[in-house]
Design brief:
Strand content: 5-15%
Structural class: mainly alpha
Shape: globular
Strand order of the largest sheet: 3-4-5
Number of strands: 5
Number of helices: 10
CATH architecture: Orthogonal Bundle
CATH class: Mainly Alpha
CATH topology: hpI Integrase, Chain A
Radius of gyration: 21 Å
Helix content: 40-55%
CATH superfamily: Intergrase catalytic core
Length: 252
C-alpha cells in the first residue's frame, strides 16, 4: 500500500509515465480484544492496588526513564484507574487521552448527566463526544485531585499533566497498562489478540452494544467518532447472538 501511494504520487507529479499493476492482496484484519465486565473490574482493582504497592529503590538511568519520569519500575501512577474508567465510559481513543485538556471538557447536568468532550481532530474526526454518567464522577475526582497541585487549569492535561511531552505521556500510560494486564493475566483476548490501551475503547463500544437498550448504531458510531462499517467489522466482531438473547426474544 505504501509503495502504491509513492508511485501514485510520482505519477501525479509526472516523474514517471505510468503506475505498474499491483496484485490484489487480501488482508485479514483481527479486531483488538475487548474486556468483559468482570475483567474490567479486575483492571480497576489492580490499578488501585499497584499504585499503593511498596517499591524497591532503584538507580535511575537513561534506560529506565521516559521524558524525565522514572518509568520502568515505578509504581503505577495515581490516575491510572481513572484512565481505565474514563476510556470505558467515554469511547475515546488513546490519542485523545494524550491530547485532552480541561478546556475540552464540559459537565452537563440535567435530565441526563454526562460530559461533553470537544476534542481536537484525530483520525479525521472532529465531532463532539457524549460520555456515560460514570465519566462525570471520574472527571470530578480527577479534577479535584490535580486542583490541589495547581494542575487543573484550562490548558492542563487531564492525565499526567506534569509531562509536557505528550508522546512520553502516552508511552508511560501504555507501559503501565501493559503491567496491569500482565499482573491480571489479561494480556491476550479470547482469540489470542494482544490487548492494549486501545482495547478499553473497544470495550466501551462493545458494552453499549450489549447493554444499551435499543441502541442506535448510527448514533453510537458518530458519538465514538467512527463509522458504521468499523463498528460492524471490528467492535461488534466478537458479539454472539446468545449475548443478546433477551432482545432476540423480545416482543412489541
Amino acid at each position: 500500500m505504501a509503495l502504491r501511494k509513492i508511485l501514485n504520487t510520482a505519477h501525479a507529479h509526472k516523474w514517471i509515465e505510468q503506475v505498474p499493476q499491483f496484485p490484489k492482496i487480501r488482508i485479514t484484519s483481527t479486531a483488538r480484544g475487548n474486556f468483559t465486565v468482570n475483567e474490567y473490574l479486575q483492571l480497576l482493582r489492580c490499578a488501585k492496588r499497584m499504585r499503593n504497592a511498596k517499591q524497591k529503590r532503584r538507580k535511575v538511568t537513561h534506560r529506565n526513564t521516559q521524558g524525565g519520569v522514572f518509568a520502568s519500575y515505578a509504581n503505577v501512577v495515581h490516575e491510572m484507574a481513572w484512565v481505565i474508567g474514563f476510556m470505558v465510559n467515554s469511547f475515546v481513543r488513546p490519542v485523545d487521552i494524550k491530547l485532552i485538556q480541561h478546556k475540552h471538557v464540559t459537565i452537563v447536568k440535567g435530565e441526563h448527566c454526562y460530559l461533553r468532550l470537544t476534542l481536537p481532530e484525530t483520525k479525521r474526526h472532529k465531532a463532539q463526544i457524549v460520555t456515560l454518567p460514570a465519566a462525570v464522577h471520574i472527571y470530578e475526582h480527577l479534577r479535584d485531585y490535580f486542583a490541589k497541585q495547581g494542575l487543573a487549569n484550562e490548558d492542563d492535561y487531564l492525565f499526567l499533566p506534569k509531562l509536557k511531552d505528550r508522546q512520553s505521556a502516552i508511552f508511560l500510560l501504555e507501559k503501565m497498562f501493559k503491567r496491569i494486564l500482565e499482573e491480571t493475566d489479561l494480556r491476550f483476548g479470547t482469540q489470542g489478540q494482544r490487548r492494549t490501551l486501545y482495547s478499553l475503547r473497544h470495550s466501551a463500544i462493545t458494552f453499549r452494544l450489549l447493554y444499551g437498550q435499543g441502541i442506535d448504531l448510527l448514533t453510537l458510531a458518530r458519538n465514538a467518532r467512527t463509522s458504521l462499517e468499523m463498528v460492524d467489522k471490528f467492535y461488534a466482531s466478537e458479539l454472539r447472538a446468545e449475548m443478546n438473547v433477551g432482545m432476540l426474544h423480545s416482543r412489541r
